[in-house]
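Hey,

The postdoc asked me to send both predictions to you directly instead of through the lab channel. I've kept everything plain text so nothing gets mangled by the mail client. Protein one:
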Amino acid sequence: MGTGYTLIFTVIACGVVVAILRTARNLRSLPWAVCLGLMLGGAFGNLTDRLLRAPAPLKGHVVDWIELPHWPVFNLADSAIVCGGVLAVLLAARGLQIDGTRVTGKEEAPAEPPAEVSEAKDGAAPAVARPSADEPVDEPADGPLGGAERPAGQEPEREPVSGGGPEAAPERPAGEERPAGEKS
């Protein structure tokens, strides 16, 4: 099938190989690397047949040797191209980009102007605009109370260290219940 288009298929295969190699420079995702590797291997395999097999260079015939009942005859290069194409559709449908980022359906809201001090009315103290819940709040390194402002006798809350054991769990005042799912 398509014996009159062998030269066209050869040019298309060369274009696909070049496009995949150029795209691979921006590759930062393992699933996309597998996908492009399958497609590159399949395109290169069929291109090799077209370049090196009879009847002439650039007019060679691709050898299809796998024959299943009720299925067209194919070769491993064809299988790799189809598997790579299916994987590309799945990755794109999940929103995974070639650079490893993920596209979400959520649009980001435009950035609001910085908080400003509003003018006071009738001699009252000026109101200070507070950041919204989405904006990060600059806090001292020791937390919202800072080192000197912590009430006397109160220790800062500590993160549990990995490795388990009683020394890893934060201490609780007597009578305070343990959160659900936490081991004793």
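Protein two:
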Amino acid sequence: MAFFHGDQFGVEPVAKLIRIACPSALPCGFAWSSDCDRLQAGEFGGGAVVITADGIDWHSTTGILNHALSRAENPHDGLDGYVLAVRSPEGDIAYWNNTDGLGALSSATVFHGNEAAGVNPLPFEDAEWLALPAPLHG
């Protein structure tokens, strides 16, 4: 565990350094906070960074809060994405994966926003779009 602080600390350079210099530690991440010496709206917050071999994923506290509030206001709105489910004649369910076709839910392609509109579920007659549930809290 390491701690860094300072008036002009660069979160992005540290994330990039970890990704390049420490590939054996990936995936990893860290959280940061920011504040101000004056009480001003928008000057306090922070976020989190998830670093993988594929890239750096940024999350701000404001974005996390807005996403959670949207989910609370519209819990069945597909905010966390959709998967395409297909039921076989035997009653089994398979999920669409852009790479391999049909398979397990764990390998399903998750579609967000208008991405689903570009997917043609044919030749599957019983295809159905399912909204992913909100993550469990524990």
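Summary for protein two, as requested: The two ends are 24 Å apart (CA to CA).

Thanks,
C.
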